[in-house]
Design brief:
25 strands; 2 domains; 6-stranded mixed beta sheet; Lipocalin; 8-stranded antiparallel barrel; single chain; 284 residues; rod-shaped; Immunoglobulin-like; mainly beta
Length: 284
């Protein structure tokens, strides 16, 4: 048989299948080259094992699948689809390296929050057979996985009218449940106070329930005693209306991050600058 499907290697009793390593080429009848239906008794009986999630919830474990046939197995694998009818445009095909074994399999790094329909298949010279279909829904990514990385956005000074193209860098903190946001104050960042200088950063608490990062009122900017706080946009001119600075995860959090307006405050509590709210940062 001629195939463009990547053969996957066995790891002890399990095979780890990354859907990125599989193929979206649909199986076709003509690929079985000899004797289709020559001996229907040889067509396999295929049973799909139990499905479960592991890791952070984007890896699907298939345990206890089986194939029985009196013919010679040419190929065994699994189909993963976001369409219950297994539309070829929404289906990925993963082939087991050794068709005489099934064992346990892990499909790694699937899309988050996606319902997958899964079935096993087996091919002999006489044809192919499918198992029944089961489904499982992957979990959402933790917020820290969504927000850590580099983000680009355009932000305007409400106090002076200057417009900055700013790049945020968000990294895990050594403190559990927190991240570090670098380059937050765009004027400082434009003047070289960026990640690596030890200046212009804040700690933020991860609010998993609301999909947000929270910077407390009066957070230390690690720059000449400057502090930062969120504000009510109607009151920025006199530096009143302090509130938490909030970054909200948008569109699932993997592409967009929105921040409310904020003040930069001098050590004496007076306003240094204010930045307009509802700025959307995009993943770089």
């Amino acid at each position: 048989m001629k195939r463009n499907i990547l053969r996957l290697l066995s790891i002890s009793a399990a095979v780890v299948l990354s859907l990125a390593s599989c193929t979206d080429n649909a199986l076709v009848k003509s690929e079985v080259e000899a004797g289709w239906n020559a001996n229907p008794a040889n067509i396999p009986t295929v049973t799909l094992g139990e499905l479960s999630l592991q890791g952070k919830g984007q890896d699907v474990v298939i345990s206890g699948s089986s194939v029985s046939t009196s013919g010679t197995l040419l190929e065994v694998g699994f189909e993963f689809s976001s369409d219950e009818n297994f539309n070829p445009n929404a289906t990925t095909y993963c082939v087991v390296a050794d068709p005489t074994t099934v064992g346990s399999y892990v499909a790694a790094n699937l899309a988050a929050l996606t319902k997958y329909y899964i079935r096993a298949y087996a091919v002999v010279a006489e044809g192919m057979a499918y198992s029944d279909v089961k489904n499982i829904t992957t979990k959402d990514l933790p917020l820290i996985d969504k927000v850590c990385g580099t983000w680009a956005g355009t932000i305007e000074s409400a106090a002076y009218g200057d417009v900055y193209s700013n790049t945020l860098v968000i990294e895990p903190s050594e403190t559990e449940g927190e991240v570090i946001i670098y380059n937050l104050e765009p004027y400082y960042a434009a003047n070289g106070y960026v990640k690596g200088t030890g200046l212009n950063f804040v700690q933020a608490t991860i609010d998993e329930a609301n999909g947000a990062l929270i910077v407390g009122i009066g957070a230390d900017m690690s720059y000449k005693g400057r502090m930062i706080a969120g504000f009510n946009a109607a009151n920025y001119s006199d530096a009143t209306g302090y509130e938490n600075l909030t970054f909200v995860s948008k569109a699932g959090g993997s592409q967009l991050l929105q921040v409310n307006g904020f003040f930069t405050v001098k050590p004496d509590g007076k306003l240094e600058d204010a930045y307009n709210g509802n700025v959307t940062y995009k993943r770089k």
